[in-house]
Each structure stands twice: as structure tokens, then as C-alpha cells.
Amino acid sequence: MLTFLTRRLLSAAGTVLLAALLVFAAVQLLPGDVATQVLGQDATPEAVAALRDQLDLNRPAALRFVEWAAGAVRGDFGTSLVSGEPVAGSLWLHLRNTLLIAAATVAVAVTSSIVLGVVAGLYRDRWPDTLISSLTLAGMSVPEFVVATLLVLALSITVPVLPAVVLDEASAPVGDLLPAVVLPTVALSVVMTAYIVRMTRTSVIDVMASEFVTTARLKGLGAWRVVVRHALPSALLPTLNVIAMNVAWLVGGVVVVENVFNYPGIGKLMLEAVHSRDLPVLQAVAVVGAVVYVLCNLAADLAAMALNPRLRTGERSAR
Amino acid sequence: MSAEREPKQEAGEETAGGAGGPSEGRTDATAWQGEGIYRREVPAKVEDLSVAYRAGGRDITVARNVSFEVAAGQTLAVVGESGSGKSTVAGALLGHLRHGSRITSGSVEVAGRDVFSLGNRDLKALRARDIAMVGQNAGNALTPSMRVGTQLEEALLARPLSRADRRAEARALLEKVGLPEPDRIGRRYPHQLSGGQQQRVAIAMALAARPRVLVLDEPTTALDVVTQARILDLVAGLSAELGLATVLVSHDLGVVARMADHVVVMREGEVVEAAPAEELFASPRHPYTGRLLASVPRVSDAGLAEVGEDGTRTVRDRAPVPEDAPDVVSLEDVVVQYGRSRAVDGVSLGLRKGEVLALVGESGSGKSTLAWSMAGLRSPASGRMRLHGEQEGDLSAGARRRPMAVRRRIQLAFQNADTSLNPRRIAREAVRRPLHFFGLASRSDADSRAREVIEDVALDPALSDRLPQQLSGGQRQRIGIARALAGGPDVVVADEVTTALDVSVQASVLALLDDLRTERDLAFVFISHDLAVVRGIADRVAVMKDGRVVEEGPVEAVFTGPNHPYTRRLLEAVLEPAPAGAQGAEGPGTARDSGTPLPGAAQTAGAAEATGADGAWIDLGGGHRIRRGGE
Amino acid sequence: MSEAEPNPVDTGGPVKGRPARRAGTARATLRSMLRSKPATAGLVLVAVHVLIALLAPLLTPYSPTANAPGSALLGPSAGHWAGTDALGRDVLARVLHGGRYALTVSFAATACAVALGTLVGCAAALKGGRLDGLVMRVLDAVLAVPPILALLVVVTVLGAGPAVIVLAVTVVYAPQVVRVVRAAAMGVAPLDYVTAARARGERTFPILVREVLPNIADVVSVEFAMRASWVVLLISSLSFLGFGANPPTPDWGLMIAENRTAMTVVPWASLAPIVALATLVLGLNLSADGLAKAWGVDRVKEAQ
After folding, report:
1. A·C CB contacts under 8 A
2. In a domain, B309, yes or no
3. Which of A267, B260, C160, C197 is most exposed, with minimal Cβ within 10 Å?
């Protein structure tokens, strides 16, 4: 089991490194001169040369990547081209703010979707299922910025109870940001829940039809016991993967939703970087996104191990 | 609850007293004291039961007017081929129907209660106390995320026991089903047990509730023969001891003969015959039963059995392989690796023209790996593998690296008719493609050539316009064989080709293979775990265990002994379709009783010294040799 | 052993009552889809959107891009059914034209992603070994970067033309298609009919085309329908953020972004594109579900 963990950690680190390389390559090696792109076509040759110097563009790309990666491991993502300050400082602040939304969303979405999915699966083709499945389909068919826009219309404009736009700086204390977290969380939860509910429902239906659940039923056990003790651990296994996949989507969704609410999170940081072509910031955000994704997958794997003794005890099955 | 049941158990033993079959344990003195408290209530009774499901707007009947009853201490077997509705009946006994199915007539009574009139609560109670089921595959029936002991304790919840008592009882149950170290086994998860152990746990779980009725749905189909024999012994012993009314559902007449007091034969949802086991096996009344019984291959047959419409059985003479038949394939010290483990470990064999060589062994013995390696799907790590004849060829190269002329001369036929044909292409395409691919027919006449080949396997070529799912299992298997024949091979590797087929279909496919061999001088490598089938079709047998050949020889010699202890175990585990009580002239004992008496391991070794065999092998002459040790 | 369908005894004669069903797979699928009301609704929704996009200029007298400062921010009226936006453009005209960009770019991007994904997925599954290992490693890395972030990086570097977006979406979504197709192909690869082809010594490509592809066509089609709905969402998000369609191109995502601030004044300027976008995605989702059901593909599990 320890060897499994070590292998899993190593592979996660490898994935992050490879993702970082891809991002680096996309940013720095795509056609066209980076300095010219950043400064625009009509920049003076001197300015371009100065920027090339600043970006170390005259040195081999491989060397630059190694240095950049080595810095990133120590938490140094270089200097912002716009503010001239280290990227890391504002990155951590924005990341903190985004994690507020993300953690709240994951908590809300995962609990509600598992409950709804299990209910829909158990009441397959009856009214609770029909209701939940229809809502799910609606949730899947509406992009998160639409949900966010409609929420603003309902809860900030029609009934003004929550702020439509956040005016706080990224460095505002967490307490000040809390009211602003509510609407983005709801918007993201709606969409995320929709996807997870579908998976949970299918998986519950599958497991409820499996032979071991039938056996448990034929043993004369109570319905609650059959569902909770026998069916759920197996039913949640595939759901875990979907949750992890959805977190990747969440990091993207955060960008859009933060833009709607002007929330000072990592999404806003990224959009600003895109607009101002602040490449070091862009790179850093993309890599942080990859790290979050990989960590979530790791967590999902660990949870799977908790649910599935076969993973815990290794594959040395007697069969 | 349990106090109330005691007398009934005794009553059960009383009724069982007169029945034939395995009656060890039933002749207990207490059984005869039951006289006074004899109860008339029948533990399980099915009356005029019909079950149907709706598909495409009409009712499809799965079971029609089925009636039977089982007395305590008795075992009733429900026998039938696939589609006979036997599993539906088994489920109905527990009040369980497949999704979408319903009862259209009749009733099921268990312990005096009409199962399908019970409310949810009562049904639950019935399942918890009076009836239990053991399914085909315990690996699927045990919850993977729960420890075995916990699942067992759960089955005891219906009884008023303290936690500690439940634990002790669970332990006792594991011990009862013959599992060693019950404490350790109880802490394991299902995947950490072997198939046989899982089935034992499933049986323990079924017994936990001290049921009156035990339903066994193909309880040993997924197991190896040796394990099967042990599990059947266990079940027979337990149901005798506990006076259970047992309903055994099976397609295997050998298993039924070993276990049943009464037999109900089903076909397409209807009962065609119901009779005491001895009577049924001795003189079946319904022609279908007769044909079914006659179709089962037996280890005592000296050749393939042919079955007439009326169920008469004639044994075909085996066409002898001429003494001077040349070798077509020779293997020398072949090793095939799977990762770090050796699936095939130093096998040397020869196959002559027109000969059927059977590779026999349990799952994991390496027989299929060896066959696939010959077919070019997995190159051996070392050793020589050659094809002889007009075109010499090295078979240790993978299929793609063999010259076309070598490639087409060794072909493969598969076990599972469901997956052996591409479901999106018409059946003829499977035969047309190799004809065209090997350059044996041009694009224009490949189609008519394909029809000819299909006719050769005794199939109406008109059928070959269909998609595989529109053909029956036997028809698909014939197409699979036609595909192997299309290349005009010298050697066909047949990997368990008849295993998944019903017995009657199996008989006809075996006859086809035998015809092909004699007509075309084809050599077959015939892989099977079923010794009775092997006895009928093979000329020579190689018994494999753990990647090695432990015994090899002409089929007569191997089946009459003396044998390697492993071969003997396999032979002893074979169940013949004759009731256990009537094992005189023919039956499971045949192999052992007739022919040369089996020497013990020590004697075998002695015989070897007498013949002066070389190191690892004991040569018994006539090509029959036995590996020393390896047990 | 299937008890449900009685297995005819091997008589060599025809199997009773089952007419040969050849070709006509497409028609059978369509018929099976039309039997389900939600699937029918989905197909109708998508068809209506495609028709509107094709016929948009004929359906409205207004130009979707011409500014008319005189009639800005009007509510719904007989002249402007859905009112006008801040620049006086007819909202309905812009909504009707708005599907053109979304549909073309989404369709092209989905087609590219599914085609590339299918190719790579099949190759990885059939070849196995080191190629498979390498492909899966790279895919994991690509998947690790959230789609929108990846898209934004590419758009920043290459600019926001439709071609760039098609390329970027292909790169972002192909790995997910590869995963699904690879899993499906791996399910087919060990089956005996593929083994038979390998034992004949056939090359990988003919095996792929003759034996594997026909048997995963269902998975690929469902994947296409499902991806399409995601791609529409992604591209509209991108437009919403200002990196998709360039103003004044009529596009739903862009329209929502433009008119969001004036929501209290002219709600229909935002609501109309929302409805259009939602119905298109809903239609795609329903169709994908219907297709999956008709073919017995587990859409939800495929999505993993």
C-alpha cells in the first residue's frame, strides 16, 4: 500500500511537471516572438530588445524552463510584466479567495448531488427521479455565467439581499469577502451538481441491480441497511472520479463566474493577465490549475481506497 | 423461532430415510424417533406457476404451469438447457422475479405461506428465516466492500442473539462449511478468497438463518471440477444433517445425478418430466429427457456418442490414426511467459496428421496459453515450435511474422460463440475475409467459396446472411469453425469450443469436428476441462498442471490408468449422469473401477523403476508417460 | 445463460420469428429515438436551431450589426419583438443570427476533437504497450490544465480567430475523447473476432477499420453529441469573457455579456440569447441521451 502511495505521488508530480512543460511551451514556443506579441506590432526595436532581455528570451528555451520550474517549486513564479512585482504574492492572495468559493462549492455540490443522485437512483422512473433528472438536465444545459447572471437579477437587483459586484481588493480579510462568496458558490454548485447527480444515479441503479445487492435483499435485510452498507460503497466509487473531473471544470467555471461578480480570485487575475498579456502570471495560474486538478484526483484515489478494499489490500486476489 | 423448527428438522430426516442418493448422516438414530411428530406441511411447493414478461407489446412466457414440491430432507433438481426457465423458478421460490416479469398463474408456497401474497415485511421475514439461496457465482454475490464475517453476522440479525453470540455463531458457520482458520477468513474481504472459498462462505450465509428451504442456482458451474466435487459433498452433507428441503437448479446432469432425490426436467418454460432421480436416469419417459441424457458425454464411452431422435445412444468407432502418420506440429521445451511468471513451463509435445490431441487441465494450467502461442498470438520465450509438412515453418514467430503459407495452416476456433463473430457484420463475412486475405479466392468468388465452406460445417448457407445475434449459439459456433477452416489449415486449435453450449448442441458440434477430422485428415489441438468430452473425441491426451505436462498418452491408456495423482483427481471428480446409488456398471466410478487398478504414488514410482524410465518421466510404453512428482 | 430469450436448438434451420435486419441501422436508430418523447424533443430543438441559423436573414428585416442610436434600449414592441440593445440593434435579429457563429465553430471543433480522439484512442488501445503508456501520460497532463485556462492561454498567444478557437478546443477536448474511445476499443480488442484477425496476421489498420470501428461507432456518435453540448457551452463562455466572437458579430455569449449591465432596463436583451443558448444545449443533451439509449451506450459512464 505504501508503495502504491509512493507510485501514485510520483506519477502525480510527473503529471504536473508535464502539464507545466506544455503550458510553458504553449506560451513561449508558439509561432511569433513573445516580446513583439506582448508589446504589439508597433513597438520600437529598443523596447522589444529590452523586454527580450527581461524575459531572458535570448537563452535556450530548455534552460529557461528548467530555471522557471525550479523557481516554481520554491514558490517563485517570476516577476509580473505589468506590476513588476513577484507573481507569487498576488497569486497566493487570489488563490486564497478562490479557494473560499471552490471549497464551499465542492462541499455544497458534492453533498447535495450524492443525496439527490441516490434518491433518483432508488426511485428510478418514479416521480422523484423524473423531477431530479429534469432539473439535472436543465442545470447541464445552462452555462454557469447564465446562472450567475440570473442569480444577480433575482437576488441583487429584484430582491437586493446580496452584492452583485464585489468591490473588495484581493487583500481584503476573509470576513469581508464572505457575503460575496454566496452567489458565486450557488451559481457553480447548480452546474456542478447536475453532472454529479447523473453519475450517482446511474451508478446507484447499476449497483442496486447487482447480484450482491440482490443477495443482501434475499437475506431479508432491511432496505436502509441494504442501501447504506451494501450498495453505497460500491455506488460511490465511479462517482468519485466524476467529482474529481468536475473539479477541473470548476477551476474553469470559477474564471467565468468571478468575472461576472468581479470577485478578486484567481480567475480575475488570469483574465487581467490575458488582457495585459502578462505571460508569467498566465503561466503561473495555469500551472496552479493543474496542481489543483492533480491534487483532487489524488484525493479521489485515496477516497476510492477507503471505499474499495480491493485497492487497499492490493491486487493479490486469490481468484 | 428456532425452537419451533426443531421438530420439523427431525421430521425432515424421517421423510428422507427412504430416499436413495447420498444418505450418509441421515441414518442417524434420531431420525427414526420423528414418527410421532411427523408434520404434513411441505417446506416448498410450487403449483401451476406461470411467469411472463412483456416485450414489444406482448407477453413472453418464461415458465408455464410448473408444479412440484420438495419434502424436508429431500433434494429436488430442476434441470434444463438455457432458456428452459429453470432460474426463473428458482427466483420465484424466494419471491424474486426479474425486473419486468410477473406471475400469470399459480402460486409458490414456502413454509406454508404463499410467497407472492406476502407484504414487504413478511417477505423479508420469510427470506430471513425460512428460505435461502446460493447463486452461481459467489464472487458476485458477496458485497465487495464488506468483510466476509460481517456479512455473515448480518444474516444472523433476524435471530435474537447478542453481538458476541452472533460473532461466535458466524465463526461456527465458517467452520461448519469447512473453511480453515475461521477467524482469519472472517476478517477477509471477498476478493481475498478463492472461488471455492467464496462459495463456501455463500453457503454459510445461506445456512445462517437456519432455513427450511435451500435454493441452489447452478452452485458449482463457475468452479473447477475438483472444487465442484468438494462443494457438492459439503452441500449434500449439510442438507442431510440439517434436514433441509433443497432445490437444486442445474444444467449439468452429472451434478443432478450426484445430488438429487427427485428431478424435474424443464424445456422452454414447461416441465416435460418429473420423476424420482433413479427412475429418471434409468428409464426416462419423455423423449426429450432421453435425448438430453444420451447427449451427455461419458468417460466410459470409447468414442463419440451419437444420439438418435428417440434418445438411443450409439458410440461411434474412433478412426485410428495410422501408425505412420507424419508429425504436423512439434513442440520442444516451450516456455511462454506472462510478465515474470511462466504460464507454460517447458512443454514438449507432438501432433500427428489427422490426430486429435486434447490438452486437459484446470483453469490456470496454461493449456489455453500454449494453444494461443501455437496460433501465433503470443511468442514463446524459449523452446522450439515447428510446423511440418509440405511447408516447413517456425511457429515461435508471431502470426504477423509467419509467411502467409504457414499462417493459414494453423488456425484457431474459440470458446465463446457470443464474442467470436463481429456483431456488426453478417456471418458469411467472417468466412469470406480469411478466404480473401489468404489469397484463396478472388474478391468476386470469395462469396460463393464462403457459402461452400459454410455448407461444409453442416449449416444452411442462407443463414450466413444474418448478423451473429440472429443465429443460435450452435450456429455461431459452426460459423466460427468455418472461419478456421477457410484458410485450409492442417491444424485447428479448438479452445473449449463446446464448453458454452448446451449438451445437445455440444454433441452435434463434436460430431462435426470428428467428421472434419476423418474427411480432411485435419489435426486438432482440443482444449477442454471436460474429461468426458475429451474421452469421446481425442486420440491422445496431455494433462497440464501449473504450466507443465504431468501426463501424456493415448486416450485409452490415460483413462484406464495408472495415472499421475493429479489426473486421477480430475478423473475422480467427473460426475456422470447416473444417480449416485446406481454407480455399479457405469458412473463416476468407472474410470477407477474398470481397467487397471490405480496404483498409489509409491507404486507408480515403483513401476517406473521397473521400466527404467529417464529422470523426470515414468514411461509406461505406448506413448504413455507420467511425470514424477508435481503434486 | 440468458433465460429471457429461448435459445433455439441447433437444427441448422432458420431461427423462428426474427427477420433479418441488415443495413437500415441508421433508420432503426432514428425510429428508436423518435419513440422516446424527450429524444424527439431534443432532435426537434437542434433541427430548429440549425434551420434558424441557415435562414436567419430571411426571418428578420433587421441587420444584426447595424447600429441605430435613435432606437436604443427599447422594450419589446410590435416593431422589435424582443426590443433593442444599447446600440439600437434589434435583439431578435441578433439572436436569430447568433446561432451561426456558435453552431459552425462548435460543430467544426467537435468534429475535429472527436476525429482526432477516435484515431489516437483506437491506436493506443490496439497497439498498447509503450505507445499507449506515452499517450496516456501526455493526455493526463493536458487534462490537468482546466479547459478554459488552456483556451485562454492559447487565445492570448495566438489571438481569438475562429480557426484558433477550433484548434484550441480540439486540443483541449481530444484527450477526453481519447479516454472514452480507448476504453471502448479496449473492450472490443480482446474479443475473439479481433483475436481471430490478429491470428490471421492482419495489420492494425484493417483490424481497426473492419473489426473495431464498426463496434464502437455507437460510442463515438454518442460522444460526438455529448461533446457538442459541452463545446457549445465552452465557446459561449469564451465569447462571454470577450475572447470568442469579436464585436459586433452577433453571438449569444457576447450578447449576454454586453447586455448584462442593462438587465434592469431591457431584460429581454439578455434573456433572449439565454433562452436561445439554453434550448440549443438542452436539445443537444436530449439528443445525446436519446442516442445513448437507442444504442445502449451508457452516456454518463462514458463521460468519465
Report:
1. 158
2. no
3. C160
A86: which DSSP letter?
B
**pLDDT tens for each residue of A77-92:** 888 877 778 888 888 8
Following DSSP, what letter does each residue of B26-78 receive, concatenated?
Answer: TT-GGGGGGGGG-----SEEEEEEEEEEEETTEEEEEEEEEEEEE-TT-EEEE
How far is residue B540's CA from residue B544's CA, in Å, rounded to a whole number? 13
Q: Please list every residue in chain C whose beta carbon sits closer than 8 Å to the beta carbon of residue B434.
A: 200
What is the number of alpha carbons within 13 Å of residue B529 lying toward its C-beta? 21
Q: Is residue B538 part of a domain?
A: no
For C269-274, the CB contacts below 8 A with 24+ separation are C269/C82, C269/C83, C269/C84, C269/C85, C269/C86, C269/C91, C270/A149, C272/C82, C272/C91, C272/C92, C272/C95, C273/C91, C273/C94, C273/C95, C273/C98, C274/A142, C274/A146, C274/A149, C274/A150
- Specify the pLDDT at position B30: 40
Q: What's the CATH code of the domain at B186?
A: 3.40.50.300
Q: How far is C109 from chain B (nearest CA, A)?
A: 29
Cα end-to-end span (Å), chain C: 30
Mean pLDDT score of chain B, rounded to an integer?
Answer: 82
What band does B442 get if pLDDT is binned at 50, 70 and 90? confident
Neighbours of chain A (3+ CB pairs under 8 A): B, C
Q: How far apart are CA B148 and CA B173, in angstroms?
A: 12
B463 Cβ under 8 Å from any chain C Cβ: yes
Residues A182-193, mean pLDDT to the nearest whole number: 90
Query: CB B87 to CB C210 under 8 A?
Result: no
Please report, rounded to a whole number, the percentage of residues in chain B having pLDDT higher than 90.
26
Minimal CA separation from B143 to chain A, in Å: 5
Strand B245-250 relative to strand B213-217, pairing: parallel
Length of chain A (residues): 319
Q: How confident is the model at residue B261 (pLDDT cuts 50, 70, 90)?
A: very high
- Top-confidence residue, C108 or A60: C108
| pLDDT-based confidence at residue B319 (cuts at 50, 70, 90) | confident
In a domain, B445, yes or no: no
The residues facing B334 across adjacent strands are B347
Q: Which domains does chain C have, with CATH numbers?
A: 31-58+79-303 (1.10.3720.10)
**Nearest CB partner across the interface for B195, out of A220, A233, A319:** A319
Annotate B383-407 with b (16+ C-beta within 10 A) or e (fewer).
bebbbbeeeebebbbbbeebeeebb
Give the mean pLDDT of B465-473: 87
Mean pLDDT of B422-436: 90
Cβ-defined contact of B137 to A234 (cutoff 8 Å) = no
Structural domain span for residue B214? 2-40+86-258
Task: Return phi, psi of residue C7, to 5°.
Answer: -90, 115
Distance CA B378, CA B412 (A): 13
**pLDDT grade for C180, boundaries at 50, 70 and 90:** confident
Does B378 map to a domain?
A: no
State pTM to two decimals.
0.80
| Cβ–Cβ under 8 Å, residues B380 and B389 | no
The number of folded domains in chain B is: 1
Angle at C137 between CA C134 and CA C143, to 5 degrees: 140
Min distance C84 CA to chain A CA atoms (Å)? 19
On whether the CB atoms of residues B269 and B64 are closer than 8 A, the answer is yes
For C225, residues 6+ apart whose C-beta sits below 8 A from its C-beta are C284, C287, C288, C291
* Stretch A272-291: mean pLDDT: 85
Report residue B624 as a C-alpha cell: 504413455
Between the alpha carbon of residue B395 and those of residues A150, B160, B351, B540, the distances in Å are: 70, 67, 13, 21
Q: What is the pLDDT of residues B123-164, one digit of tens each?
A: 888 888 889 988 888 888 899 989 999 999 988 887 888 999
